[in-house]
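hi! just following up on the protien thing from before. the input was this:
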Amino acid sequence: MRVVVSEFMDESALTNFGDGYTVNYDPGLVDNRARLFEGLSNADAIIIRNRTQVDSELLDAAPMLKVVGRLGVGLDNIDLEACKERGVEVCPAVGANTLSVVEYVIGTAMALTRTAYSSNAAMIAGEWPRSVLGNGGEVSGRTIGLFGFGGIAQAVAKHAKSLGISVAAFDPYLPEDSPAWDGVKNCTSEALLEIADILSLHVPLTKETASMIDSDAIAKMKSGAILINTARGGIVDENALVSALKSGKLGGAALDVFATEPLTADAGAKFADTPNLILTPHIAGVTFEGNTRVSYVTVASVVRVLYGG
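and the predicted 3d structure came back as:
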């Protein structure tokens, strides 16, 4: 059995393939489609993250492919219909990086609410900005709004409640009698925008969600509210967000995903000099521990498929 790994993972997990497998671990393949296609010509499996595009072109280059192991849960870089037509199984690592994302959401919510962690330059210069930075807030007693209420958002809700944060959510696909709603306010999308002190996005990028958080949506949000996007770039209108932060309409934002990824200097220029903004390179679900869990789960899934379930 031949396995190609086109993006980074915990290499120790690869030892679980054992005898009978040939593994080509080359994280640089994601940036060289020609070499990737060459390596896939006789591959039974490919393991990817979010940058490798599993489209018809790739599938045509991999006629023996049986399974795609996804180091994460987002599937927008995979043509699921094309995989289905070719009998290629897709295996996301559901739940393996949930805690990593939860801690990112809670951690950035606390940092943006407190507004006390970007004072190094002033402190070193001897300015002692105590009167300004001492005006930050606490997350306890506030409301976090979860746009989408799947597994990760439900885990965010659990941890938020333990900190005294009230939880509201919008998810038209989750049955109203689901036990996940216990202790969580079930809102319409518009109501969620209006009541959330912290709005965290947990939806895929689709035609319906593209630019969902635009200037009109932001206008409905509370003055001083915080926005966190660990879902997908393109859901937030980045220009509208920058305007809202600079005007003071929003109190802060954390973006881990972007319309252009990797974020280029040109695409990132819009964010320059924007206050209370945290930008990270699509790593909310990538921690040392999370990467280990995701890698081992993905290898186990690929082995299961290759051995016929």
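The chain has two domains: 2-96+289-306, 98-279.
The chain has a mean pLDDT of 96.
cheers
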